[in-house]
Amino acid sequence: MARIGLVAHDDKKDDLCVWAEHHKLKLSQHELWGTGTTGSRVMAATGMVVTLLKSGPLGGDQQLGAMIAEGKLDVLIFFIDPLSAQPHDVDVKALTRLATLYDVPCANNKSTADAVLAYL
């Protein structure tokens, strides 16, 4: 069982919910963690249990990063909106940097998320 982090920028939350609903059977076999708003939206859309952290801008991104650094997260699914400025961009960059540093698979879009999930 993998420990999967779920997070999405505001304009990508709907996309992540649709993706999670499509992969509900496979995702439900794993332990899911999500930033506050994203995790709540995924739970509402799919009925799956997602352990909620703080909202991304309020520290949720940093909580996921800490989980990666502590070896408590195996996969990060982070649907990033490349066309919108993010007020907490520093936190976003830190999270993706930690995923890279600790060699944690990090999917930033649907196609990559499909490939990572197929691997599990």
Automatic annotation (TrEMBL):
Domain MGS-like: start-end pairs: 1-120
GO cellular component: cytosol
Key word Oxidoreductase present: no
Entry keyword set: Lyase
Reactions catalysed according to its record: dihydroxyacetone phosphate = methylglyoxal + phosphate
Domain of life: Bacteria
Enzyme active site: 61 (proton donor/acceptor)
Enzyme superclass (EC): lyase
GO terms (BP aspect): methylglyoxal biosynthetic process
UniProt GO MF annotations: methylglyoxal synthase activity
Residues binding substrate, per UniProt: 9, 13, 35-38, 55-56, 88
Gene3D superfamilies xref list: Methylglyoxal synthase-like domain
Listed EC numbers: 4.2.3.3
Family matches, as SMART domains: MGS (SM00851)
NCBIfam families: MGSA, PRK05234.1
Biological role: Catalyzes the formation of methylglyoxal from dihydroxyacetone phosphate.
UniProt family annotation: Belongs to the methylglyoxal synthase family.
Protein name: Methylglyoxal synthase
Organism (species): Devosia ginsengisoli
